[in-house]
Amino acid sequence: MTPGLLGGVSLVAALILSVLGLALAVLAHTLRDGRYLEAAKRLSLLTLLAAALSFGALEWAILTDDFSVSYVANHSSASNPLWVKLVTPWAALEGSILLWALLQTAYTWLVGLRAGQSLDVWRAPVALGTLFAVQVFFFAVMVFVAHPFDAVPNPPPDGLGTNPLLQNHWMMAVHPVLMYLGFVGLSVPFAYAVAAMVARRYQSWIFETRWWTLVAWGFLTAAIFTGKWWSYEILGWGGYWAWDPVENASIIPWLLATAFLHTAQVQERKGLFKGWNFAFITLAFAATVFGTFLTRSGVIQSVHAFASGPVGAWFLVFLLGVLAVGLGLLARVSSEIREAGEVRWRSREGALLAGALFFGTFAFVVVLGTLWPLVVEVVSGAKVSVGAPFFNQVSVPLGIFMLLLMGIGPVLPWRNTNAQVVRNLAAMLVALGVGTLLGLALGLSLGVSLAIGLFAYNLTAIWLMVAQGVRERSRSLGIPAGQALWELASSHKRRFGSHIVHFGVALAALTIAFSQTYRVTEQKTLQVGETWQTRGLEIRLLSIGAREESNRFAAIAPIEVRSTSREGWGADGRYETRLNFYPQMSSPLATPVVRYSLYNDYYFVLMQFDQEKGQWATIKLIVTPMVLWLWVAGLIIVLGTLYILWPAGARVTSRQVSPMAGD
Amino acid sequence: MGWLLLLALALAQPSPNTPPPDFSPEVFEIARELRCPVCQGESAAESNAGIAVEMRRIIAEQLAQGKSRAEIREFFVQRYGDWILYEPPARGLTLWVWLSPLVGLGLLGFGLWRYLAGVRARAQLTASDVSEEEIARLEAELQPRERQP
Amino acid sequence: MLRFWPILVLLLGGLFYWGMQRPNPNELKSVLVGKPAPSFSLPLLEPYRAQYGPEMGVRAGLGKPVLLNIWASWCIPCRTEAPLLERFHQQYRDQVLILGVNVQDSEAEALKFIQQYGLTFPSVYDGRGRIGIEYGYYGVPETFVIDRNGTVLARHAGELSEAQLRGYIEQVLR
């Protein structure tokens, strides 16, 4: 039993089992027979095992340097360090699809487990069937087009090695997995939506998928932030988001999922927006398929692109299929969804809808911007580029509105406003004004000052809501404020968790404004021993040396940095800037040395050095303020999400006498 | 320094061994708006490709000559076309991508408004679903029964 | 409005299908086509100085069509292309000037390349690729076809095949 054989067989088994599962689900639906459903649920576990076996076989092949397997020969090397070998499965196309399929089987199995409680026998088969159909697609792609376990007739002594960009940082082990967990996670609410539309039960799916959507959203958010951090640490350009088409492909589902999270609440409370929610989740899931299509089809140029091939056509058909199923079903049932109700704009529902409006517009803009070069080429044959400067400028006004709405939303109660709310709003606007003026007084730009104002505005909103709730509870129950806060936080997890998440978002917006506006890049060539005085720093080039490592060769230029003024605070230290030379790359990879501080980040990159005598080196310095806080903000958002999701312990006995305002 | 000779041989892409000029922050700001022609989607500020390095040098020289940012951008557009700019020109077909936020807001906002109006209309309709005649009959039924024996 | 969803799906599908079917998605059309070729004068590589002088380049009034070939020693397709160019140089040397521009390279490596393939057509040294940028190059090899009036007729990105090279030569000799 070789890894190649095991992997190939279990892959085919997984495909067959998925087809069987789909067939059973279809039978359960058409024949209204629960026994087929039970069989499908059991099959989902078998499919998961087959997929896990296949994935394990791939790992086995990589770890044992089995170059008779095509994937290993093409993407691995005996000289790779152990941790690189462990993550090589998702370093290239075929393996990444296998990871995706594996995660999909896991989600399908979990849905099968929970379906007994949440889904009736009319809908469970459709939901499971949809998930099985997605699995069938991914396994079929591997079996027919992108097989990881193709046998290599004359196994080479060593493989071609892994892309060096993926070997530079341990984040490679984390970010892609998180991203796939998020992408695949969105298939579950989509499956529920399809089931809802087929069974014509339009309301309950929203409650049932609350948890699933939040989990998927949480993974997506974590993936985006870790991706930003990875890019920042690795690529040597001092930025964390380049609006690269594939980065855009991950933020489009995130934007749509965020819109959906919020409009779902409107449907929960008032039963409105049913059709819109079906559309949102269809588009969100389609956007994840769109992302995988972009990376694997060669349609758009990107640093993230996998090698293109016939896979692209398959993903295109799948993408169109998802859109057709979701939108087609919606078109069929939309006339039946006869909703009646009133939505006043100056209410929580109004704010949520307005927020969804902006998130949807933002997603629209990112899609259009990413595809516009292709559109222009189709229409006129000309080549244009739509890149970071465009997206950065366009996201500012949209971001401002979204931050304003984020503050107002929780403050407004459901249905309509009252005097207390008006007072709260006034306080928030005062905070906005004060923050902005403070920024301007400090000599900061208008954009950054506005960001400070918006941060203060959102902080005030959260503070007011929490303080109000605590005050009311402690007053009506006669308990101290601390206990009231504790009880409220435990019983209103969703509300408090969303406060935490919104705080994180406000902080992220503030750091993005600061770091984008005040980032400075400079470059200078230094002789060994020479000192460079700039930006409150004194940088001295100590020497130039070399080091040989298992899979690369590195030129090292250690520098000593001293901060000479407050501007360069936190930079002191000795750093080894390096250029990594990989045998399979024609030019060296500049890997930055990043020095974090609470205030500025200092980024040192070795650009070039004297190859003949080793007397000079060119150092690029990037100073970015407040970037550390962006990662803190990401952590806060993820923690807030976990807080909402955390299973409620012993519920605090409902001792509320008066309902909490606005809840 | 034998290892350096080894290094020179190891380099598959030999390049001239002269130190590059020093670059001010403005060079990178301008380079960030230009595309690296040879790379897959990196800007001239980030890329380490030979072309990008030379582009930064050209930008530095032109800044020293007193050229404006617009003139420097124009220099590259004359040689590579609009494609070299990461910010699409606001005319012709690419004007629409600049208008996309307004278009998006307009489309979605219009859809939202239509939907809400329809929902409200249906709410009012159900409120007045009962006809006048039926209301009169109800009123009559609710009158105290005077003539009951 | 929702009933128009098939149109959206078809449009998207059509757009992406076209995007995937494009023969050369990364090809960039040169904006110099139809315009006068930028003039320059660069130092020749050592073996050619005896015959052609210290410097050479494209300038107005040359009176001869030029095939400007941008190459580098580390570029693999250039190795396949070099003997082809050499052959055509031998055949058409009186009618067409085949001029090489060595970019992103060290002189030593360039000389080794010339020796290895026995190239007799002149090549100038543009170490950092400045003249390449003047011509809007985005990779190597690239060949610019310039007619006898100094106007750029075409830019060929990538390796030249014999048929294509013959086609360009015939085009400039017309």
From TrEMBL, chain A:
GO molecular function, one term: heme binding
Gene Ontology terms: cellular component: membrane
Database matches in InterPro entries: CcmF_C, Cyt_c_assembly, Cyt_c_biogenesis
Domain Cytochrome c assembly protein positions: 90-297
Pfam families, sorted: CcmF_C, Cytochrom_C_asm
Keyword annotations: Cytochrome c-type biogenesis, Membrane, Transmembrane, Transmembrane helix
Highest taxon, organism lineage: Bacteria
Limits of the Cytochrome c-type biogenesis protein CcmF C-terminal domain: 316-644
TM spans (from-to): 6-31, 43-62, 82-103, 124-146, 177-199, 211-230, 250-266, 278-299, 311-331, 352-374, 394-413, 425-444, 450-467, 626-646
Similarity field: Belongs to the CcmF/CycK/Ccl1/NrfE/CcsA family.
Protein name: Cytochrome c assembly protein
TrEMBL record, chain B:
Organism classification: Bacteria, Thermotogati, Deinococcota, Deinococci, Thermales
Spans traversing the lipid bilayer: 95-116
CDD domains, per the entry: CcmH_N
Record's keyword terms, sorted: Heme, Iron, Membrane, Metal-binding, Signal, Transmembrane, Transmembrane helix
Keyword ATP-binding set for record: no
Record has Iron as a keyword: yes
Pfam families in UniProt: CcmH
Residue span, CcmH/CycL/Ccl2/NrfF N-terminal domain: 8-140
Function, as annotated: Possible subunit of a heme lyase.
Gene Ontology molecular function terms on file: metal ion binding
This protein's GO CC annotations: plasma membrane
Record-stated family: Belongs to the CcmH/CycL/Ccl2/NrfF family.
Protein name: Cytochrome c-type biogenesis protein
Recorded superkingdom: Bacteria
